[in-house]
Write a sequence for this structure.
């Protein structure tokens, strides 16, 4: 037998829901009315934007090509390796061609540029991207070995490839850096910001980074757009390779200029160090200690450490000191 109290309660809830829904059209109208004004950033156009979901897929398929067998979810043997690689690259090429086309077309319409044959640029750019994968793999092999040699906690190359956030961020950076050199708009930064969100490591695709690069732990690392990093460099968590603070006018005048430091070969930079400025050069084989703030150049073979702070102990005796 139906419960009359429950039925009345359900009817009241349904009436309330209908009453509240009547307010939605007014909000829709207000939001639509603000489109096309300075109060709204929108992209209402027949020209598609690149897809964030596609960017994630591009990264995933690229990693399958760069590290076959690690991220595929099924067994790969020598007998089916060529078939597998062909399938991955075919799908990656098609996906990349579409995304480059959309990125170029959006840029053209947004900034009222002359036609640059975006469809052809998409196809050619996708081909150059997949052609660049063998060299990226060679670089990443050296990055993996640098991680293995530089981290005594490493359980081997499998662990590094599967789980190290530094390697993931550097992999995405090297892919995005290639697209940047191909003059592809939007996509490179979308890729590195995806890695940034996933790992806490922010590497601008415009940075120039040499071989055997290792980021240990990694959280909070920032590498700015015009940073130049040599070979065999190691960074720890919280390192910032950034630009000096600028006024709005200076930002515009220095857009595209060298604003971030140069790190030469075989340098180690420990956690929390901040190195700023386009004229700042850290010479080869130098060591920058933790929490150092550096805005001037350092000669090669130099160690820079912050003076040990005076610690204050409250509520207990200082370690190593006997009670009087």
């Amino acid at each position: 037998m139906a419960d009359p109290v429950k039925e009345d309660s359900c009817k009241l809830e349904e009436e309330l829901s209908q009453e509240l829904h009547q307010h939605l059209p007014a909000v829709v109208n207000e939001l639509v009315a603000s489109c096309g004004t300075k109060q709204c950033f929108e992209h209402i156009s027949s020209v598609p934007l690149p897809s964030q979901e596609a960017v994630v897929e591009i990264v995933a398929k690229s990693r399958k090509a760069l590290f076959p067998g690690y991220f595929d979810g099924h067994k790969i043997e020598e007998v089916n390796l060529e078939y597998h690689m062909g399938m991955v690259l075919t799908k990656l090429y098609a996906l990349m061609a579409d995304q480059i086309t959309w990125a170029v077309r959006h840029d053209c319409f947004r900034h009222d540029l002359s036609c640059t044959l975006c469809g052809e640029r998409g196809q050619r750019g996708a081909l150059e991207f997949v052609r660049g994968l063998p060299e990226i793999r060679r670089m990443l092999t050296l990055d993996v070995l640098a991680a293995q040699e530089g981290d005594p906690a490493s359980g081997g190359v499998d662990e590094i490839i599967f789980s190290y956030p530094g390697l993931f961020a550097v992999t995405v950076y090297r892919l995005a850096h290639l697209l940047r050199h191909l003059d592809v708009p939007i996509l490179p930064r979308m890729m590195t910001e995806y890695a940034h969100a996933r790992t806490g490591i922010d590497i601008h695709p415009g940075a120039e980074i040499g071989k055997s690069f290792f980021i240990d732990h990694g959280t909070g690392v920032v590498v700015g757009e015009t940073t130049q990093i040599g070979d065999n460099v190691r960074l720890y968590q919280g390192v910032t390779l950034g630009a000096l603070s600028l006024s709005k006018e200076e930002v515009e005048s220095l857009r595209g200029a060298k604003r971030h430091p140069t790190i030469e070969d075989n340098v180690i930079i420990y956690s929390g160090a901040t190195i700023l400025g386009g004229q700042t050069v850290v010479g080869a084989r130098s060591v920058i200690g933790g929490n150092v703030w550096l805005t001037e150049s350092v000669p090669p073979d130099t160690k820079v450490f912050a003076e040990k702070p005076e610690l204050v102990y409250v509520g207990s005796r200082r370690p190593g000191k006997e009670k009087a």
About this structure: The chain has two domains: 44-202, 207-324. Residues 78-110 form the longest helix (33 residues).
